[in-house]
């Protein structure tokens, strides 16, 4: 976990029991005033209502590539969730439940999913597709020895996360910019506003582990 002034940022794995426990422990023991989560309105309602994230009909206007990305991502996340026995997004859902139970303020800080998917669709070119399948065949990015370095039931260490992000940035810079960098900026900006609007309140942010460190760095740079 990272903290800066009145904001505490917890990096989680969306299919980790440890992450659910960490969220519970912080909210119940540290008693924050505001809980900010890595969701936008569409993903929030999809999660709490246990619906599919986006219907096929609603996704068509984003493009075929965006549709495939969403379906593949949801499928992989669901399969991994079954392996570890945790539904994807359980730590976010638990945070929402505790916010409601303890009458706390909830803030959705992520970029609109439609914006992210539209940009991602443009970022995935033919070259990127061929490179991706080439990497799968050659095992360049995610070698077996790398996979064995961490247990998917737990949140990977900062070193492992940093190594994975470096590899993604090197091999897929446009994908990295869309999924990581731009969303870091959006979430950091939204958290910075919360920090300044509620200076006397304790803010607890729950984000994916790959976003945690850079969000804090952006907030510090913004303030300085």
The secondary-structure element order is EEHEHHHHEHHHHHEH
**Percent strand:** 5-15%
Distance between the termini: 22 Å
- Main pleated sheet: 5 strands, mixed
Q: How large is the radius of gyration?
A: 18 Å
What's the arrangement of strands in the largest beta sheet?
A: 1-2-5-3-4
Number of helices: 11
Oligomer: single chain
Instruction: Summarize the amount of helix as a percent range.
Output: 55-70%
How many β-strands, per DSSP? 5
What class would the helix/strand composition place it in? alpha/beta
Shape: globular
Query: Mean pLDDT, as a whole number?
Result: 81
Question: How would the blueprint of this fold be written?
Answer:
Blueprint: E1 2-4, E2 7-12, H1 17-30, E3 34-37, H2 41-48, H3 56-59, H4 64-84, H5 90-101, E4 105-108, H6 113-123, H7 126-138, H8 144-147, H9 158-171, H10 173-197, E5 203-208, H11 212-223
Parallel strand pairs: 2-5, 3-4, 3-5
Antiparallel strand pairs: 1-2
Walkthrough of the structure:
The chain is of the alpha/beta class. The protein has eleven helices and five strands. Strands 1-2-5-3-4 form a five-stranded mixed β-sheet, sandwiched between helices. A hairpin with a 2-residue loop joins β1 (2-4) and β2 (7-12). α4 (64-84) packs across α6 (113-123) and α10 crosses α11. The longest helix has 25 residues, at 173-197. The protein starts with a strand and ends with a helix.
